[in-house]
Amino acid sequence: MRLGTLQRDRGAAVAAVAIGALLAAAAAFAPLAAALGLLMVVGFVVVVTRADLVLLVMVAALPWENMLGFPSETLSITKALGAVLVLAYVLRLIGNRGTVIRMEPLLLIVTLLGLWVGLSLVVAPNPAESIAGSLRYALFFVFFFLLVQLVDDREALRRVLRWFTASVALAALYALWLFLVTRTDYRVAGPVEDPNDFAFLLGSTLPLAAYLIGRDRLRRPLWIAAFVVIAAAMLATFSRGALVGVGVVALWGVCTRRVPLWVLGAALAAGLTVLALALTVWRPLFDVAFGQKRHIAAANTSSRTSLWETALLLTAERPIVGVGPGRYPVEALPLLRNNPIALAHPVTHNSYLETLSEGGVPALGLLIAFLAGAWGLLRRVQNRAAADGDADERRLATALQAALLFAVVAATFISVQLSAPFWLFGALAVVLARPAAAFEPAVAARRPRRGFGRAFPSISAPAA
C-alpha cells in the first residue's frame, strides 16, 4: 500500500480524518500525549506505506548494533527493527496482492542453511545456550530475504549503499573521536566491541565508498571525506587481518584490471596521509598503541592457533550437526587451559572454523556455497555489463566484488559470519544479477529486444 491509496480509498480517508480530529482534541487537554500519538500515527503510516524506508533504517542501524543491545542482547533494538521490517513487508503483501515473492537460487541456499541451523539448535547438548546464536542467524536470514524482496532496481540498490556507507563513516568518525580525543582505548573500536570486528566492517565498506565517489558527483566531497575517515579508522584498529584483506583486494584489482589505477592511487594517498599524521601530530598516542600491539602480537598468534585447533577437535566430536549455534565458547573453554591468553568467552577468530564447529560440515558447505554463489552472480554481471557497454553496472559489480573479496579473506582471521557484510553483499549481488532490462529501464531503452523482452513487454525497449 502507498500514500496514493489514501486518496483512492474512502475508508482510509475517513479513518485519517477521524484520527486527525482525535489528535486535535487531545492536543487541547494533553499536548504531550497528543505529540506521542502523532509520532505513533506517523510511524504506523511509514510502516504501512514505506517498507523500503524501514529497510534503510535497519541497514543504517546495523553498524551500531552493539550500542543498540538494549533492553537486552536477545531483545535488542536491532531485532525490534527487524520485526518491524517483517511487519511492514507483510502489510505490503496484504495491501498489494500483485506483489511477487522472488525465489532466487541463492535464497534457496540461505533457506537450507537456516534449516540446518535450526536442526543444530534442536539436537544441541543444551539448546537453551544456542537460542541467542540462533536468533542472530534468523535476523540475518530475514535481512537477506527482505533485501532481495524490497530492493527493486539499481537506484534502490544505490540508496542502500549510500545509507550503509554513510552510517559506517559516522561510526568511524565516532571511533576516531574516542581514540584521539577521549583516548579511552589504545585501538579504535567505536560502536563495535572488538577492534578486529570493526576493522572488518570498515574495510568491507571502502570499495562501496570508492564507487560512490565516482557515481555521485554532487556529493563527491562528502564521499571522499567518508573514504578517508573510514580508511583512517581501519588503520587505527591495528588489525593485521584487515591489512591482509586490503592487500588481496589491491592485488586482485591490479591483476584483473577491474580496479582503475586512480582508485588504487587515491587509496594509497589516503593511507599515506593518515600515516603522516600518525607519525607527526598523533605520534605519542600511536607510539603507545604500537607498543601495546607489539606486546600482545606474539601471544595473539599462539592463541589463535589454539582456538583453531579446538574448533577442529569439537568438529571431530560432532561433525554432522556441530555443538550448536553460539556454543563454541562453552564447549571450547575446558579445552583451552593452556591457551596463551586467558579468555572468559573465547571465539574461534575464524568464521569458517566457527561455522564448522557449531553447525557441522553441512553448515560450512552451505556458507561456502552462498559466498561462491554471490561471487558467481557478480562475475555474470561483469560479463553482461561488458557486452552491453554499461559502465555503471560494471563499476557497481566491481565494488561489490571487491567488498565481498575483502570480507571472505578477512573472515579467515575473525568470527564475523553473523555480521552485516556477508548478507548485505550477497543480497545485493542477487538484486544486481536480475535481468537488466527489468532492472534498469533507462539502460533497457537503448538495447535491442531480447528473449525476456517478450515476457515483459511493459518494461522492454520500445519498438522502432
From TrEMBL:
One of its GO terms (molecular function) is ligase activity. This is O-antigen ligase. Pfam families: Wzy_C (PF04932). It is a multi-pass membrane protein. Keywords: Ligase, Membrane, Transmembrane, Transmembrane helix. Residues 225-367 form the O-antigen ligase-related domain. One of its GO terms (cellular component) is membrane. The chain crosses the membrane at residues 12-34, 41-64, 76-94, 106-124, 130-148, 160-180, 222-254, 261-282, 359-378, 399-416, 422-444. The keyword Cytoplasm does not apply. InterPro entries: O-antigen_ligase-rel_domated, WaaL-like. It is found in: Membrane. It comes from the Bacteria.
